[in-house]
Amino acid sequence: MSKKWSTLAIALGALAMSSATFAAPSPEMLANACAGCHGTNGGSAGDTMPSLAAQSEAAFVDAMMKFKSGERSSTIMGRLAKGYSDADIKAMAGFFGKQKLHIANQMVDKKKVALGAKLQEKNCSRCHLEEGKEGKDDTPVMAAQWLPYMQIQMELYASGARKMPDKMAEKVKALSKDELDALNHFYAAKK
Amino acid sequence: MTLDRRSFLKLLAAGAGAAGLPMIGNAAEIMPKKGRRVIVIGGGYGGSIAAKYIRMQDKTIEVVLIERNKQYISCPFSNHLLAGYIKDLSSLTIGYDKLAKNHGIKMVYDEVTAIDPAAKTVVTKGGTLSYDKLVVSPGIDFRTEEIEGYDDKTADIMPHAWKAGPQTILLRKQLESMADGGTVILTAPLAPFRCPPGPYERVAMVADYLKKNKPKSKVILLDANPDIVSKPTLFKKGWEMYAGLVEYRPAAKVTGVNTAAMSVTVEGIDEVKGNVINLVPAQRATALVGSAGLIGEDKKWCTVNPTTFESTLHKDVYVIGDSSNAGAMPKSGYSANSEGKICATNIVAAMNGKELIEMSGINTCYSFLSHDEAISVAGIYAVKDGKIVGVPNSGGISKLDYSDAKLEAKYANSWLKNILTEMSS
User: Fold this and answer.
1) Over the stretch B62-79, which tens digit does the pLDDT of each residue have?
2) What is the pTM of this model?
3) Structure confidence by residue, pLDDT tens digits, A26-61
4) A31 found inside a domain
5) Residue A16 in domain
6) Of B204, B217, B150, which Cα lies nearest the Cα of B177?
7) How far is A99 from chain B (nearest CA, A)?
8) How far does CA B11 lie from the centroid of its chain?
9) Residue of A nearest to B395 (CA)
10) Which of A71, A97, A123 is the last residue of a domain?
């Protein structure tokens, strides 16, 4: 290409670039990018990765804001959350919140589920509403969540790497390791 | 954009060079186009996702996915075969039946031989197909001509294993048959290449195999780059668990090869011998997109509009994945996945006369250091001043003290499960 042609092409290209206007990223544009790790529409196929589908919007926003500030420890999520504005996070929360609950195909222990049901009713049901199917304020939906993911989170709570809300810490203090795992099985089994 | 002079000349040149290929217009049309149609070429990390997300957003657009193979084998995690963490590639292999059925994607298993952006047709061995918009996600080709002595047989003796499949299995078999005390040569070409952390993860995977099975052996990485391209501090620390087995040589570009002597020439001078040699040549966009006049002035990669991934050289043709120059987004599987969605969303907007949407992309790459330890790099991307850039103050690499490595390995396994499930259902 002669110099004259290339100058003209660059000028035209610059013109096209500067005159183009685009709509701000839609909730879909933002949320679809998450699906490589969290599954299409937030339904995770990987057992250590939480499903985001049908998550409470307030809980999603709370988690992302805490990842962003570093208040909630993480491996990769803090690095990612920092790339989004508060408005972006809200938009993503809206997208995932309206998806259907994703029922993970997983094995649970029936005895543990039965024990977990009793423990949930007594200890957790005031915040984890409808047997974990509904969030309350920043309490997340737990129903049908992946068991290994919840077990990892309980380990992080136990080691102090993740901080529990005060009300939860009070309840958890009185429960044994087996009882906590029974709760994980209970929530995992909910459909 | 109308055809500029240079593209026109390129098209002429491509036509002249394409003698022997089926002549455009002569081959029979397969699946005559009725309504609005998007053709996607390549069913890998980018193409399968573009096809799916177009259909998810607009069921009235017909999507035809043309793929050479009935099954796809993932490059990410294929290094695990070299370490012996997996016995075969079955866990990395997906088919297209569920994807096609769930989303009404029309599969054409055929090889594309030419693209005619002016006539808006794609030529395969079986015939021609017309499109309104075309997405090309073809992967990479090797610049083997830059290595003296490289010929058609070289990869059978010194596998690149940079496209997962028989090449990966060949390299694993060579490692298995090597005697203890042998030298394994790995090579990394000048960046940019597919999977920036790949060569360095491969060092750890081969070293782990040697440590357990052939501890008197060693692995040497000849890196054409002045330093490790991705996560340098993390890899250097990770390799410490294989002390005595790993040797890293930066600024060591392979310029020649001698398969009879099982040696490579480094920087035109040094002769380095190996019992196993994994020769990964430098890369470019594929010959197919080259002949279609989609490669930019660097003669290596396709130039695209950073917001839509539409070619800057041909209207209605979009290039995603490793063949495109996506600015700060690395040539990774996750980038291709993200680009497929960005491209799909803007194709659907454009075909419905709606305003185009600013892109927002993610990359997440995990690399293993041992069977249960991994490190990661992640980024969020947006367009600024006409270029894809990392969003300031976000992204980055794992903690340098390795305290998250075991947890990250667990997350990495779910990464694979989710991204392959996205592609195949």
Assistant:
1) 999 999 999 999 999 999
2) 0.93
3) 999 999 999 999 999 999 999 999 999 999 999 999
4) yes
5) no
6) B217
7) 14
8) 25
9) A79
10) A97
Whether A168 and A114 share a structural domain: yes
Decide if B174 contacts B82 (C-beta within 8 A): no
Beta carbons within 8 Å of B151's beta carbon, 6+ residues apart: none
Cross-chain CB nearest to B378 (options A17, A46, A76): A76
Domain termination site, one of A54, A76, A97: A97
Nearest to B362 among A23, A24, A80 (CB): A80
Does pLDDT of B179 surpass 60? yes
Best of A3, A22, A74 to disrupt the B interface (most B CBs within 10 Å) is A22
pLDDT 10s digits, A9-18:
554 554 444 4
Statement to judge: residues A47 and A79 lie in one domain: yes
Domain at A34, CATH number? 1.10.760.10
C-alpha to C-alpha distance for B215 and A41, rounded to whole angstroms:
47
Residue B192: count of CB within 10 angstroms of its CB: 17
Does residue A173 share a domain with residue A127? Answer: yes
Q: Between the CA atoms of B132, A26, A31 and A58, what dihedral angle is there, to the nearest 10 degrees?
A: -160
Using a CB–CB cutoff of 8 Å, tell me whether A107 touches chain B.
Answer: no
Q: Is residue A18 part of a domain?
A: no
Structure tokens belonging to residue B255: 């310029």
Is A2 within a domain?
no
Contacts of B168 (CB under 8 A, 6+ apart): B73, B78, B81, B82, B89, B159, B161
Amino acid identity of B375?
A: I
> Quick one: A90 and A114 in the same domain?
no
B308 with B318: CB under 8 angstroms?
Answer: yes
Question: What secondary structure letter does DSSP report for B311?
Answer: B
Per the structure, the complete domain to which residue A170 belongs is given by 110-189
